[in-house]
Amino acid sequence: MTTPIVLPWPLQSGLEAATRALFHPGERSSADFLQPAGEAALVPPDSISWRVFKNPLSLLVGGIAAVIMELAEPRVRAGVWEHTTFRVDPIRRLRRTGLAAMLTIYGARGKAEAMIARVRRMHDRVAGSTPAGMAYRANDPELLNWVQRTAAYGFLQAYHAYVQPLSVSERDRYYAEGTLAASLYGASASTSEAALEMQFEAMSNRLERSEILFEFLTIMRSATILPLPLRPVQPLLIRAAVDLTPHWLRTIVGLTDHGLNRWEPEVVRQAGVFADRLVFEANPAVQACRRMGLPANYLYVQGNAL
Fold it and tell me: Where are the alpha helices (DSSP H) in the chain?
């Protein structure tokens, strides 16, 4: 069992502010994870998901890995690049995406369902054609499934690889926990790691290389995602995200030489383990525990007892 860490005040305060900016981007009515008191989330506090999503480092790495995989699908890529602010305002887009993920896992169920309904209404207006002439709709179940499954994979793999290894049964439990949220989004979740791998394989012939993917990685290297003292490690975390994607996919999209060097995975792991012991009051995981009447450090003290 590990002991949560409290950092010296200047560093603790700075990281608290960064956490607040990431997960509470001015949308206070929907981003209050403390209310309504006692209202359950879509998944319970003793879930694998609550422990995986509390770690800010693995969330960042896993989220980038998921987007890499999403952008390999030409219809998803066109929808993201033509109908979102990733190119012109990547930070705002990352914050909104991060908030949506946190509300899905930690938000009171009523707030999570309302947010997901808003997302689906917005997606109803997103449609178009790829440069090759393929029509797409954001609420197409096949595309929703790809986005949901790559996101679930990215977040889990980042935690598994760079924070705490999880057994096959724990990973299967995590995927099964996503069933309800996926159905609300209009997608169908994989209920096991084996099923997910088969579903990825079935999509492999639809994936392709694109310069947009490389543009996305360039944006992620230079965007002001991390607090200033941590900015030098940002390129390392981008490479860690590339490393999380399946090797066969990296071959398809041309990223086989864009991952970590031999000694770097251990550096990322040490950082991930350290981040897993930091208790920030602004973290939705901490606020959700308080909403449910649990200690603020509930997920951190229990983190090694999955």
Answer: 9-23, 28-31, 48-52, 56-71, 74-83, 90-106, 109-124, 141-162, 168-177, 179-185, 193-203, 211-222, 234-244, 247-253, 264-275, 284-291, 298-301
Q: What letter does residue 127 receive in the DSSP assignment?
A: E
By C-alpha distance, which of 287, 285, 239 is closest to 265?
Answer: 239
Containing 137, the helix (H) or strand (E) segment is strand 135-137
Tokens of 298: 């509930």
Please list the residues that pair with 127 across neighbouring strands.
137
Other CB atoms within 10 Å distance of the CB of residue 192: 16
Query: Which two structure tokens, joined as six digits, stand for 40?
Result: 């359950």
Residues paired with residue 129 on neighbouring β-strands, in sequence order = 135
259-300 pLDDT, tens per residue?
A: 999 999 999 999 999 889 888 888 999 999 999 999 999 998
Residue type, 290: R
Backbone φ, ψ for residue 10 (5° rounding): -60, -40
27 vs 20, 42, 71, CA distance in Å? Answer: 11, 20, 27
pLDDT tens string 86-130: 777 877 777 888 889 999 999 999 999 999 999 999 999 999 999
Cβ(5)–Cβ(262) below 8 Å: no
For residue 145, the one-letter residue type is: N
pTM of the predicted model, to two decimals? 0.91
Q: Which residue type occupies 199? A: Q
Identify the H or E element spanning 157. Answer: helix 141-162
Which residues does 88 contact at the CB level (< 8 Å), separation at least 6?
A: none
Distance from C-alpha of 14 to C-alpha of 299, rounded to nearest angstrom: 22
Two tokens, residue 243: 């490393």
When computed from its CA atoms, the radius of gyration of the chain, rounded to whole angstroms, is: 18
